[in-house]
Amino acid sequence: MTVPATAIYFTAYDQLKAFLCGRALTSDLYAPMVAGALARLGTVTVISPLELMRTKLQAQHVSYRELGACVRTAVAQGGWRSLWLGWGPTALRDVPFSALYWFNYELVKSWLNGFRPKDQTSVGMSFVAGGISGTVAAVLTLPFDVVKTQRQVALGAMEAVRVNPLHVDSTWLLLRRIRAESGTKGLFAGFLPRIIKAAPSCAIMISTYEFGKSFFQRLNQDRLLGG
Ligand SMILES: N[C@@H](CCC(=O)N[C@@H](CS)C(=O)NCC(=O)O)C(=O)O
């Protein structure tokens, strides 16, 4: 995700969590999970058409000027829904990722907070909590990442020989096929690179966000007290 998308996603998460925590809709333990899933669902939905355009620009050497015509033809041929092509597999990977990520993040953070007298999260703590929860979420959602990649490769191969995919295998079917062909190991292909990418990126993103948030909170507080 890009920086603006991540900022919107994190802010949406905070707002949703605050909304859910004050109400009896979910227990406070599960509020981060629900807020994380909803915030990610919204983000994936907004980002999905932009990602599609980015890949079109990169893969088919379409210029910005041709892009408008490209989008119009796609909409005329496949309707508005075609702009959200690939939304399903992306959401299936990213929504469970976020649900797991925020649930564990808040859990690890409160556990680490137990060692501190003040109830304020330090940047270091959010870095550690983000890294740990990102690793757990990345491992548990790895099978969905494998399925997403295999689907993209299959679709790309069909497009290359100009065959219109009439039927796309369901995620469940693909998961079962991978398991039958390559065993559980196949579902967790790319384990190490995924962790090497997820742990630092989650740790850096969340600690930067928490740092910015507390910086501006302090600034506002000082301003209120001063003025
Ligand atoms: N899209 C990710 C989900 C992981 C994720 O969302 N990580 C957050 C940080 S905790 C992120 O924004 N990563 C950057 C990215 O996805 O490009 C995946 O590969 O499964």
Would you give an account of this structure?
InterPro entries: MCP_dom_sf, MCP_transmembrane, Mtm1-like. It catalyses: glutathione(in) = glutathione(out). The protein has eight helices and no strands. It has helices spanning 3-21, 31-59, 64-78, 87-113, 123-140, 142-160, 171-187, 191-226. Helix 2 crosses helix 4 and helix 4 (87-113) runs antiparallel to helix 6 (142-160).
Q: Topology, pairings included?
A:
Layout: H1 3-21, H2 31-59, H3 64-78, H4 87-113, H5 123-140, H6 142-160, H7 171-187, H8 191-226
Helix pairs in contact: 1-2, 2-4, 4-5, 4-6, 5-8, 6-7
The protein binds glutathione.
Provide the β-strand percentage band. under 5%
What is the overall silhouette? globular
What would you call the structural class?
Answer: mainly alpha
The domain tally reads 2
| Overall helicity | over 70%
Query: How many strands, what sense, and barrel or not for the largest sheet?
Result: none
* Number of helices, where a helix is a run of at least 4 consecutive DSSP H or I residues: 8
SS elements, strand count: 0
Oligomer: single chain
Mean pLDDT: 89
Ranges with pLDDT <50 over ≥5 residues? none
Short overview:
The protein is an all-alpha fold and 227 residues long.
Features:
2 domains; 79% helix; 8 helices; binds glutathione; 227 residues; mainly alpha; single chain; globular; 0% strand
